Amino acid sequence: MSLRTQLRKILPSISVTEQEALDAGDVWLEGSIYRGKPDFDALRAVPEAKLSSEEQAFLDGPVQELMAMIDDSVIQNEKHLPEHILEFLKKERFFSLIIPKEYGGREFSPYANSTIVGTIATKSSAVAVTVMVPNSLGPGELLMHYGTKEQQAHYLPRLANGTDIPCFALTSPEAGSDAGGIPDQGIVTKGQYNGEEVLGLEVTWDKRYITLAPIATVLGLAFKVFDPQGLLGGKESLGITCALIPKSHPGVELGNRHDPMGIRFYNGTTRGEKVFIPMDFIIGGQQNIGRGWQMLVSCLGAGRGISLPALGVSTSQVALKSASEYAAVREQFGLAIGQFEGIQEKLADIAGKTYLQEAMRVLTTEGLGMGLKPSVVTAIAKYHMTETGRDVLDSAMDILAGKAIQNGPQNTLASGYVAQPIAITVEGANILTRNLMIFGQGVMRCHPYLQSMVEAIHSEEANADKTFNKILRQTVGYSVANSLRAFKLGVLPFTASSKSSLPEVQPYEKAAQRLSAKLAVYADFSLLVLGGKLKQAEMLSARLGDVMSYLYAAMASIKYYEQKVAVTDREAAAPYFHYATRYALVEAEQALHKFLDNFPASGTRKFMRVLTMQFSHSMPQINDDLVRELATAAQLDTAFKAQLTHLVKPQAGDGHDINEQAYKAKIACLDLLGKVKKALKKREIKAGVRFYETLDNALIAKVINETEYAQLIDYNRKREKAIRVDEFDFDLNLLDENTASGTIKSVVNQ
What we know:
InterPro entries: Acyl-CoA_dehydrogenase, Acyl-CoA_Oxase/DH_mid-dom, Acyl-CoA_Oxase/DH_mid-dom_sf, AcylCo_DH-like_C, AcylCo_DH/oxidase_C, AcylCoA_DH/ox_N, AcylCoA_DH/ox_N_sf, AcylCoA_DH/oxidase_NM_dom_sf. Its cofactor is FAD. This is Acyl-coenzyme A dehydrogenase. Belongs to the acyl-CoA dehydrogenase family. Residues 67-162 form the Acyl-CoA dehydrogenase/oxidase N-terminal domain. By secondary structure, the protein is an alpha+beta fold. It is 57% helix and 9% strand. It has helices at residues 3-10, 16-24, 29-34, 40-45, 53-69, 72-76, 83-91, 110-121, 125-132, 139-146, 149-160, 292-304, 307-329, 341-369, 375-400, 402-405, 414-425, 430-446, 450-457, 464-491, 506-530, 538-563, 570-598, 602-612, 624-634, 639-644, 655-668, 670-681, 691-700, 706-723, 737-741, and strands at 166-169, 185-193, 196-211, 218-226, 237-246, 253-257, 267-278, 331-332, 335-336. The strands form 2 sheets. Strands 1, 2, 3, 4, 5, 6 and 7 form a 7-stranded mixed beta sheet that branches. A hairpin with a 2-residue loop joins strand 8 and strand 9 (335-336). Helix 8 (110-121) crosses helix 13 (307-329) and helix 14 packs across helix 22. It is flat, with a radius of gyration of 29 Å.
């Protein structure tokens, strides 16, 4: 019995849906990471993302107008998104960011799309989600890539100008993450349409969690097609298919709403029972029956890398701006709380991870802007950037403490805190994304021979044994080369290469090379020892996926520092860069240790450890000095910090504006505050019960002059407003029609 025959009994074949997912996307930088040789040349050759003049004008114009219209505290106390906001979104074509200009769309880049969604999300998650869904996975993108010319000509202009509002229904009560297992079905049959008998489908569906469904005018629908009567002349089960159905079509049910954590975006259900649709409703026409899953995974990869990561980044930027400004202004025990090391530890973590988030956002959208659809990279972006956003926001909540938990217009964190689990759940729960998708897809997509080998093992071709043996020899050679390289870098780590011209970058590039080489070895041995069982060993494969993810993050950090940080800002950016890159490398190394510690075959585990010299932690660590340095930098008013929080656009009178005014006022009078504190310490003046009384005493004692007194009084007024929280002139248990009308105002902000 040949080796191929023996393996055929052990290894499962690739299912149709798995094969379509593998064929749908592109392999990008993650391929070089998996193979042990991170391609920094390709990284540096990626065109730098920049906004066009048209995109910048849209951000400066309609987006700014929209931000001024939004009061999220009012939205959250209403049942619906305000009609004037919805009409503004339609009028300014916010739903057409990806639609080509020939159809009336804006045709913006992925980077611009991400920037727009992220900017809106800093003010309102509900409005951001409403904008992002039509510009992500939905009828628009499916029509652009797969629709017939007639479908494109009819629907795309209507989607662009807001005449039609789209939604896309994939998830059912019985099939969430397992989208390939959807029970919804369409039976090929004949029926009446426009007074004629035509060939079509009798479709039955039950879908939930469908964003925009309650207000959609056109429904994108995924279901399985069956042809029991053989009307199409082929097999009975034809596969997943996507159709576009007007809401007005008989039998379509759209309307019942969910309540996702009180975030007031439209999310709901759609159902239909034996609804007859003509073949013309299938996206791309009858010829695309059974191609739905391929269409979906191809389009999903791009959307997953834009919208949800943008929400994670916006959360981080809001957290950094809010926490750093509050830490600088809020004082306890006579000191700004940002000077306490406990606060500094949290603040540095927020700052470093926000840098990493922005670097990953930029790199991922740059890849998408090249026309690539890297499904593994977008899965990495979706998982890690939404999870990091949650982690960063938790730290900011700790720093702002009581201010962070009181709802009202002045609270800059509450909306994001409540909405963050939504981004983590959408488009597949994050547990699935990490445990199955990142490495599960990565191993098949990135290994140079594995997919071909599995196909050869299950091949019925006459020369299958010959083909298999050839691939096996190539695989063995590849694995031996991986092992030799990893052993060399383990014994002689200084031989790792770096092509960066910046001395501070070179150690990190070399570290990434060493970790990647080890990853390639561990992946090879996992496949050799565990084979098909690796698919079920989710905790092990997830750790290998973590290594890929964090090395991708480290590469993003390096590229951002080299290309997006101005030379004049390098000094200010350095602590952010060092913290972010070290964090990514340390997490990657930690994942390798956990993988080895839990590998089930003892002998193989010991051999891998010796082969790669993986006995201790060798990555540069985040020490206390770096934490203090970054926490201090995060509290400074620098151009680079403004760059890292650029998505946050304070509007007159909102929480960000109140915080920023107090922060900038304090930065401007630090020397004067020092004079007053020095006088207090020398007992030249007495402290008042309130700070303005202390300033009165300082003026009388001529510690400060009239001009300085006026500046300090102005700062104190802004400081007092910033450290207060919203309070209301009504009983919170008596929310009634006043709430719905948006007339209730915070006492503080009146």
